[in-house]
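Hallway conversation turned thread

IA: we were arguing at lunch whether anyone had actually written out Tyrosyl-DNA phosphodiesterase 1 end to end. Turns out nobody had. So, for the record, here is the sequence (607 residues) and right after it the structure tokens. Reply here if something looks off.
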Amino acid sequence: MLQEAAHGRWTVSSSDESAEDNSDSEKPSTSSLSDSARNRASGPQYPCSEARKAALKRKASPLKINDKNFPADIPPAGKQRTSQEGLGWCLSSSDEETEDKEKHAHKETLKEEKCDVVKEDPRSLCKDEKLSGNQKLDKYNETSSEAKDTWDLLNGENPFRFFLTKVRGIEQRYNSGALHIKDILSPLFGTLVSSAQFNYCIDVGWLVRQYPLEFRKKPLLIVHGEKRESKAELLAQARPYENISFCQAKLDIAFGTHHTKMMLLLYEEGLRVVIHTSNLIAEDWHQKTQGIWLSPLYPRLPQGSSGSAGESETNFKSDLINYLMAYNSPILKEWIDLIQEHDLSETRVYLVGSTPGRYQGTDKEKWGHLRLRKLLKERASPVPAWESWPVVGQFSSIGSMGPDGSKWLCSEFQESLVAAGNPLATPLKNDVPMHLVYPTVNNVRQSLEGYPAGGSLPYSIQTAQKQLWLHSYFHKWSAEVSGRSCAIPHIKTYMRSSPDFQKIAWFLVTSANLSKAAWGALEKNGTQLMIRSYELGVLFLPLAFGLDKGYFHVRGKMLSESNDSATHFPVPYDLPPEQYGNKDQPWIWNIPYTDAPDTHGNMWVPS
């Protein structure tokens, strides 16, 4: 059957009608160990999604735009087929049919790019230095001035403690105030005693190298969700390291993932919590836009302190302990006790987590989008003309939303996002504008990484073609404000903005993409919330930062001195977002793009 929308037109194969709700989560491949060994030269040596495997393969074996030596099992781009409706692209998920796409990308003049790089050749737009892949990904040599910047970050004016990761290939001034994982694990942050790393995709050898030499033999607990062959691969990576132990998160509901990204760092001087959006692999800390919340250094409580001691006004301590208890793992008991022994009272953010399960009664409000709804109703301050304040969602992956918005996105999920200031009020949710930020094909093509950046945007053709209605909500990625327009986002953020986008009522940075698996979906006439995955994020509310007007101002250029850092929140991308044009296409990872080269002169054939 034929489906059409403003940003896509596909012939739908009936064989794809039964794709899963969570089909576009970054699920690990369950390829056998023998397959892994055979593909080690070009493939990853750690469990990861099929989309990332395709990106790594294309990096190792790039296809130039004039290279017609396609793999035998992949059809080249088909002939142009004009669409009378002017709806853009015509695609099929069938293996027998070829891609049909308008050739406008080939003819279109590449727009003036947003990274300050040499521009004689369009392919040099946003292009990285000419180092080998391994050199670029693994090289991080901190200069003395950068070390000073890191120290200043800990002691300077950053009340929100929200950071971006450093990006190689952008102007250095935009990396001022940003962090690399080696900064976070630096002795400047504390004298490490032990650590726990919660994550989804983990390269153990790379992770160990991010710790300073003096900390590499300290006890390290890795919390993961791998099973069967993927688990065996992960454990095999760690065999050379006697200090590494593992905790397997239980995933009892199909298609769930352990998607949380958190570090617990125990120092001689205290404890630190880091909640972020990056996988523990080199690519995620190299040329992507990622977010980090870095806690204060939490001091140890005096011996004999009460069980409620060290709690913050945001209830962060007990919420973090409850989140860890949800794993139901004896291995995490040590970390729960350590948190209990420290003073977390300086925390100003709220924890918003998801844990797998089916929840009823008051338990429904502990996790997922109902947790966010409860916090916004009880803690956010309403403002005049509240119903005209748009919701903005920004993410790197998309699950199945159903045949129309009423099934989840514009019903229960939007109701949670627009809640505010009155536990009893139910706003007119359909009157609230919704802006969804997701990269276009051109965003990916013109990025620092080129087409392989799309490996971390695992939106599939099978899901996209069933929800063309969703694409009318889509807006382009643009981050002039942080110098990261060319750094594809893996960060996930949600916020409520004023109509002029000069203020925000709240801001959430999280691991949770736009999916029911991450946020939960109501069942049994709304009496039960079902969540498949582990997710974690932090919510910033103005009142927790001493702002009684009910909103943050939006900071302009991140380096601007005219913005008061105590009242202006550093939203990391441009507001207002720009809606897709008629010719813009959302990035879909598992179809070829061969009409125009990326910034490295390559095309994309995901096989």
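OS: looked through it. The two ends are 26 Å apart (CA to CA).
IA: good, adding that to the notes. The chain has a mean pLDDT of 83.
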